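The freezer alarm interrupted the setup, so I double-checked each line after restarting. Inputs confirmed:
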Amino acid sequence: MSLATDTLRARNMRKRRARLLAEARGLLARGGFEALNLRELARLADVTVPTIYNLIGKKEDLLLALGAGVLTELESRIAPAHEADPLTLAAAVVVESTGLFAEDEDFHRAAFLAVEWLDQGGQHHDEVARIYDWVGELISTGIAACRAARLLRGRVAAAMLSDLIMRNFRMSCRGWAFGHYGIDEFRRMALCDLYIALAADAVETFQLQLLHKITELTPDDTVATSPARSARNNRGDST
Amino acid sequence: MSLATDTLRARNMRKRRARLLAEARGLLARGGFEALNLRELARLADVTVPTIYNLIGKKEDLLLALGAGVLTELESRIAPAHEADPLTLAAAVVVESTGLFAEDEDFHRAAFLAVEWLDQGGQHHDEVARIYDWVGELISTGIAACRAARLLRGRVAAAMLSDLIMRNFRMSCRGWAFGHYGIDEFRRMALCDLYIALAADAVETFQLQLLHKITELTPDDTVATSPARSARNNRGDST
DNA sequence: CAGCAAATTTGATGCTTGTTAAAATTTAAA
DNA sequence: TTTAAATTTTAACAAGCATCAAATTTGCTG
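Predicted 3D structure, all chains:
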């Protein structure tokens, strides 16, 4: 019961814990969520399974630790981006998230799936809720900035708008994590979703600006065909 | 290897299969997704586990069979609703789905979770994709009708709009299924999401109409507080 | 009606996963 | 150096899905 003290034993524990988390990250990135079982992790980290329980806890705790790492990284990236125009502020979460995810797509894909896995199965997780509350706060801040800059009319409740945007973002995330489309498509989709939601309550000039941005983001062949659905069906005829 | 013929044996098989599906439905409604394990199901249906494999298949097939039942029911309800104004048409999926779900909330909650469970875990399911493709088609039809009636301007690609709406609907569904809010809140949220998305591309009169509908749906106390987040935190202080 | 062949149900079993209790070992202090 | 505390390991359990050979039921036929 140490891990916070500074004795030799505690230092070794922290080292093994870090090793475990690193191996878990690699395992997750390599084989996806299914590949992360405790026996394999123990084998890779040169410990036995109960040691994992001692150093980290049960599987939920392991996944939570990995997710917390991503969240921390994301927080540190978004923090210094507070001096920007309202639209950039509103889009910060989307831009920074996709930017971070793109750096190690395999791992972040699996990490996201892991966190999503925590939230299902009837049990509710305060940690997961806190993550999404944080995202919601960020989006709310962006919307408030747009409202303050007289870009939004305020005819739609800000909370409703921000909830809508966050739900949408999470769903786009899922689609990417499940392999329905790549990270570029994910980013494009999430941004378009955001712009469309804002456009619903936008002042005319702002609305035109948003529509322009959407057009900019839209590939030429996406006008008639749904990208999500078309991308979903191209499976099995690649090799 | 019958089940399609009309001998006595085949009829008994169908009977047992129906019994199994009925018990599975009850089990799912009672104890949620976790309660649906093959041993318990076999016990309730007065058969043994391998019989389930013979009559239905593995667990995926069982869940798929349950989901297919819900989809069939939903299809039959939406089919005769084709003679309506464009907005009603666009909202048909939301209204009919929530209407059906409300009739047996416990079961449909669990059934939805079961279908969602199929779609995760790396494996892709064509059956699940077909369900959501169908929903997407319906929403697309509604949007096309709105466009044809000159209610939408067409400045946002219809496919993009319909994808957005469907993603949102699925996410609202998840929130309800996970118990974050009740069926009424779910219906309200899904409709608001739809209206907001349409408003982004709506002609001015239509936009006002949509905003009015949103205001109608919005409870008085939802203006400042996010319902999803506030509802998420009321746990543990009820008893 | 009796017997036979095919199909179906069953009991037993394997395998994987998460999880835990107690023994063995290592570590820090007296 | 001895000793007590903490940590790792050995070993095993429980629960889930999945499957196989044997037993049983069913439907047809002489």
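Quick read of the result. The radius of gyration of chain B is 21 Å.
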